[in-house]
Amino acid sequence: MSAEHQPEEHSAQGAHGSVAVAADGKDPFADPGLPPHEPRKQDIDERAAQRSERTVAFLFVLSMLSTIGFIASFVAFPIDELHYVWPLGNVSILHLMLGVTMGIALFCIGAGAVLWARTLMSDVELVDQRHPIAAEEDVRAKVMADFKQGAEESGFGRRKLLRTTLFGALAMVPLTGVMLLRDLGPLPKDKLRHTMWKKGERLVNINTDEPLKPEDIIVGSLSFAKPESLKNDAHDFNNQIAKAALMIVRIQPKEIKDARSAEWGHDGILVYSKICTHVGCPVSLYEQQTHHALCPCHQSTFDLADGARVIFGPAGHPLPQLRIDVDDEGYLTALGDFTEPVGPSFFERG
Fold this sequence. Notes:
Elements: E1 9-14, E2 17-22, H1 41-44, H2 46-76, E3 82-85, E4 89-92, H3 93-119, H4 137-154, H5 160-172, H6 174-180, H7 188-192, E5 203-205, E6 222-227, H8 237-244, E7 246-250, H9 259-264, E8 269-273, E9 285-287, E10 292-294, E11 301-303, E12 309-312, E13 324-326, E14 332-334
Antiparallel strand pairs: 1-2, 3-4, 5-6, 6-7, 7-8, 9-10, 10-11, 11-12, 13-14
Helix pairs in contact: 2-3, 2-5, 2-6
């Protein structure tokens, strides 16, 4: 472009530099303002708006169905059941279904809200001048009026189908969290109050897997046992041994202080739960001179000669004792289950 065809500009020098000004005195970089508003299809076609409304409602309903699927999966699938799923390999079906159903439930709520905002709520651009934080009374009144106007334009009050399905989806999603409370632990009434021990169940050495006779337990020793029916390859071995593990000691009968403990034992052989009544650690340290058993986690100390009474530490209850006898073949057997729950004393034992 030749010089005579270039627009004439003047340079005004100020304290902070030069500012370009066109020949007609207008700022060439002035704010162009908002572009003209272009209505959406849903703004001019009610049928399109109804289709969008049905789509949003479908997403909210799908979220509710996914929440129901989450709860059903939680009940239907065992936690330790593994299946091969390509390309994930061997996975827990329960975990997979929980993740998929919860993901769909949350995604559908978000997608429905976004679609609602983009297709049905007002999209007219508004410009408002920035104002001080401490607003005047008329400004607060204007904000409330704008809020009411926005609520009206969103269709929240007018579109009952959207409002109802949204409330339904939001109300059901928290049920997934309520269901997950099951994994905090078994209910004491149904789980911790019962172990695999029953009348006639033999005591088996946990290391050799051989049934125990009284002559296998020597004075001053500490042995560990499990139920004979609990096999090492059982799918729920860890869950069962965590409740049924035993600690066996043999004390001179004259040194046993608690009469009931002596009666529940056999010729000085006393059998207690191995699970500490504080937080469930395995009690495994034994001092034969004092007959004290020590939990290595928090130093709770139990006097095995006095009914496993707590003499030190944070444990709240004595170790439960298992009543034993000898069967016709001379093996140590249980006379029943523990009479009180094993493990941490976080609830009343009745």
